[in-house]
Specification:
Elements: H1 22-32, E1 38-39, H2 54-62, H3 77-89, E2 100-103, H4 105-117, E3 123-128, H5 132-140, E4 144-149, H6 160-165, E5 171-177, H7 189-202, E6 205-209, E7 233-239, E8 252-258, H8 260-276, H9 288-292, H10 298-302, H11 307-321, E9 325-327, E10 335-340, H12 350-361, E11 363-364, E12 366-367, E13 378-382, H13 387-404
Parallel strand pairs: 1-11, 3-4, 3-5, 5-6, 6-7
Antiparallel strand pairs: 2-8, 7-8, 9-10, 10-13, 12-13
Helix pairs in contact: 1-12, 4-5, 4-8, 11-13, 12-13
Length: 406
């Protein structure tokens, strides 16, 4: 007797997360065979030897006995209050601890906030390229992602007129990822103010993914979106994973700000969903107050001589020295979004290039099309390895590219 395979949720047919997809699975198979794989597909600092500040670890250890019970569904008060103080320091007005939700990373909060807002077939404006969790989460909540283009020739900043042309009566929200993943673009104040005014005119919720807010290079300025949005609801998302190198702690936060009259039911819905999952991981929350106060160690890593800065420079040098590559130099985050010359390479597409690079050179990266773009001539790498290792990566990459030349 044969048994038919179980059917799965149809909404999953439109969901992709190739950063941890087939290529990553193939890399695991090669690693099990004894190959050393250089993993450039994901921003995971601990894999490359980055450590969290010792004071954060100590704060968590000292509060372990206070972490054995559930906490409030919004999170422990000292963590939420620390987020409020950071927001106030940055010029965001009117935020209290009641407006802060702590989650199991920003990923969980993206899902919760979208689920609280969206009805079937409503629309959310999302940048292209995007961090693919945003597109996936909108789809999983049975709404429709609508992508606004952030083109390479425009420094990966969006066109405001084009964004407005995509708004329909079904549009509920716009997502802004700044500094941007995967491109490393840091949006200008003019662009951000334009998006804020557009959102206010159309009563859109503004979701601001600012997880890389302090990872900036060469004097780039990050303007917190919440300082610009006043007459509609703004939800700022950030956490410990990137700036504080604490990915495994799974601690993120969502902060509600803006027009108080617009957010009541939405905020209550988020709290209901937060209550259903009881609470976020408690031990890691005790590191938030220590992390956000005092010395910010990320500044030394992103300044000249710092590891992130120097590896970014190795990427810049590798692209400049290549006969096949170019890109917009990233002003923030921890990635390079690099284009290869398809004309010289016989129409090579990003997925084939990524697979051949993995099989032949044992380097794992993310194809550009993973980030919901219509073109197939980009790839994303992270600048987490050492500069020396990155230079070797580009040498191996150039060897492979030469083999594809038409």
């Amino acid at each position: 007797m044969t048994t038919a395979p179980l059917s799965t949720n149809r909404v999953l047919r439109g969901v992709r997360y190739e950063i941890r997809g087939d290529l990553a699975q193939r890399a695991l198979e090669l690693r099990r065979k004894g190959y050393d794989i250089t993993e450039l597909n994901i921003g995971n600092p601990g894999v490359f030897g980055f450590r969290i500040p010792e004071t954060m670890r100590q704060a968590m250890i000292e509060n372990l006995t206070a972490s054995e019970a559930y906490c409030h569904q919004k999170g422990v008060f000292p963590a939420r209050e620390a987020v409020v103080m950071q927001q106030q320091f940055r010029g965001v007005e009117g935020v209290t601890a009641e407006d802060v939700f702590i989650g199991n990373g920003v990923s969980e909060l993206i899902d919760i906030t979208l689920r609280a807002l969206l009805n079937t077939d409503e629309e959310v404006l999302i940048p292209s390229p995007d961090y693919p969790l945003w597109t996936a989460s909108v789809s999983l909540n049975r709404a429709r992602p609508v992508h606004y283009a952030c083109r390479p020739e425009n420094g990966f900043e969006p066109d405001l007129g084009e964004i407005e042309s995509l708004i329909t009566p079904r549009t509920r929200a716009i997502v802004v990822i700044n500094p941007n993943n995967p491109t490393g673009a840091v949006y200008s104040r003019e662009t951000l103010e334009g998006i804020a005014r557009l959102a206010e005119r159309h009563r859109l919720v503004v979701f601001c993914d600012e997880i890389y807010d302090q990872i900036l290079y060469d004097g780039a300025e990050h303007v917190p979106m919440a300082t610009l949005v006043h007459d509609t609801t703004c939800v700022t998302l950030s956490g410990l994973s990137k700036v504080y190198r604490a990915c495994g702690y799974r601690v993120g936060w969502a902060v509600f700000s803006g027009a108080r009259s617009t957010m009541g039911d939405f905020q209550h819905a988020v709290e209901l969903l937060a209550s259903l999952r009881l609470c976020a991981n408690v031990p890691g929350q005790w590191a938030v107050q220590t992390a956000l106060g005092g010395y910010q160690s990320i500044s030394a890593l992103t300044a000249p001589g710092g590891r992130l800065y120097e590896t970014r420079q190795a990427i810049i040098d590798g692209v400049e020295e290549s006969d096949y590559l170019d890109f917009q130099v990233p002003a923030g985050a921890m990635y390079g979004f690099i284009r290869f010359n398809q004309e010289r390479l016989g129409g090579l597409d990003d997925k084939r290039f990524a697979l051949e690079l993995l099989e032949q050179k044992h380097i794992l990266l993310a194809p550009g099309s993973s980030f919901n773009v219509p073109y197939t001539d980009h790839f994303r790498i992270t600048n987490l390895p050492t500069a020396e290792r990155m230079a070797r990566v580009f040498g191996l990459m150039e060897e492979l590219l030469e083999s594809f030349e038409a």
